[in-house]
UniProtKB/TrEMBL annotation:
Domain of life: Bacteria
Residue ranges with Low complexity bias: 344-363
Protein name: YncE family protein
Signal peptide positions on this chain: 1-34
Keywords, alphabetical: Signal
Length: 390
């Protein structure tokens, strides 16, 4: 049993692995020529977010943000074959979350979302050489690098009535040299068509895809994403199509990049979050964070290939197209804190079990009932980086 005929959605299936036997699950569609392989996994540090692969540096770089308030955050450099930690780039109390890399200049960029900066790391020295800001505490989120033009594009996500923007950073000077402003719909994801001089942006609140013409840096077209909570996207040059991860509708929509025509909706898994393409093998990888597995889709036929469980909550994916290696960062599961006791109908605060009730003073709101303590979560498959092969 590989595909649920009713929903046409692949379901993960247990697959034995010596390195990660309890978590390596693989389900195959009948058309696949070979089974994807779960190779190995590592736990390089706490609070993992995004990762990138660098062929010139022969490293996988992963952001280790730690817990809130941590003073020892870092970017960890892993051996791409063994996932052994080779170097650690210390960031102190200012973590990065989103990552992008310029392999030509050997420069790593990270979003310091808490204070609205972009950290610039020289990979040769392993040092932060600049922190770029533009205004106060911009919600910087995702990055795209144009290596040929030495430009970095950063989404700045607006919420509700605040429009979003894109910063344009000159990689030679590490300065913001332009902005694309007044973008509607809470822009989150970004993908670059360097040859066509286009930026594709996903707008999570309005469920749209925006196209920016990089010759003029103007928004020239918007069209529906075809899904809900469209958080990230990636451009596929081979088919001139855009894949959109829709976190709210648990699917990926495929759109014609010219006019936004919906080509197909691909049910993938709960909380479809991030995407990556292997152009050599025509495979799309989808991280389904809530579903807990990565989906593989043929970009030519738009048919599912397999689902692979890589860890607890897949976050981001990086592809080494030369070897076919695929790297996945997996977040730690976080337990929910118990809800506070319900308030009585008259508005007085409810007493915690065993506590003395406290009366609300006239004219002031009642104090909030305390929430229960968070129970520790033991998750051996979270905060991991996994290596799989198609």
């Amino acid at each position: 049993m590989l595909i649920d005929a009713t929903s046409a959605r692949l379901r993960p299936r247990l697959f034995a692995s010596t390195a990660f036997a309890a978590a390596a699950l693989v389900a195959l569609a009948g058309a696949a020529s070979a089974e994807p392989q779960f190779v190995t996994s590592a736990k390089p540090g706490p609070g993992l977010y995004e990762l990138v692969f660098s062929a010139p540096m022969n490293r996988v770089y992963v952001a280790a943000a730690g817990s809130r308030g941590a003073t020892d955050t870092s970017v960890v450099a892993l051996d791409p074959t063994t996932l052994e930690t080779k170097e650690t780039i210390a960031l102190g109390d200012n973590p990065v979350f989103g990552l992008a890399i310029n392999n030509t200049t050997k420069t790593l960029y990270g979003t310091q979302t808490r204070d609205g900066h972009i950290a610039v790391v020289d990979l040769a020295s392993g040092k932060v050489v600049a922190e770029i800001a533009n205004g106060e505490k911009a919600h910087v989120r995702e990055l795209a690098v144009d290596e040929g033009a030495n430009r970095v594009y950063v989404t700045v996500t607006g919420r509700r009535d605040t429009p979003s923007a894109v910063w344009i950073i000159d990689g030679a000077t590490n300065k913001v040299v332009g902005t694309i402003d007044d973008l509607p719909g809470s822009v989150t994801g970004i993908s670059l068509d360097a040859k066509g001089k286009r930026l594709f942006l996903s707008a999570m609140e309005s469920n749209e895809v925006h196209i920016v013409d990089l010759a003029t840096n103007k928004l020239v077209k918007s069209f529906p994403s075809g899904g809900e909570s469209s958080i990230n996207l990636t451009y596929d040059a081979s088919g001139d199509q855009v894949f959109v991860a829709n976190q709210g509708s648990d699917n990926v929509t495929v759109l014609d990049a010219k006019d936004g025509t919906l080509i197909k909706t691909l049910p993938t898994g709960g909380g479809a979050l991030s995407l990556a393409i292997d152009p050599e093998r025509s495979i799309l990888y989808v991280a389904n964070r809530q579903g807990g597995y990565v989906s593989l889709v043929d970009t030519k036929t738009l048919e599912p290939i397999a689902n692979v469980v890589t860890g607890s909550m897949p976050q981001t994916i990086a592809v080494d197209a030369a070897s076919g290696n695929v790297y996945v960062s997996n977040k730690l599961k976080v337990p929910m804190r118990p809800r506070p006791p319900a308030r009585p109908a008259d508005g007085a605060p409810a007493a915690a079990p065993g506590a003395t009730p406290v009366a609300a003073s006239a004219g002031s709101p009642p104090p909030a009932a305390p929430r229960g303590p968070r129970v520790p979560m033991i998750d051996p498959f979270g905060d991991t980086v996994s290596l799989i092969k198609p």
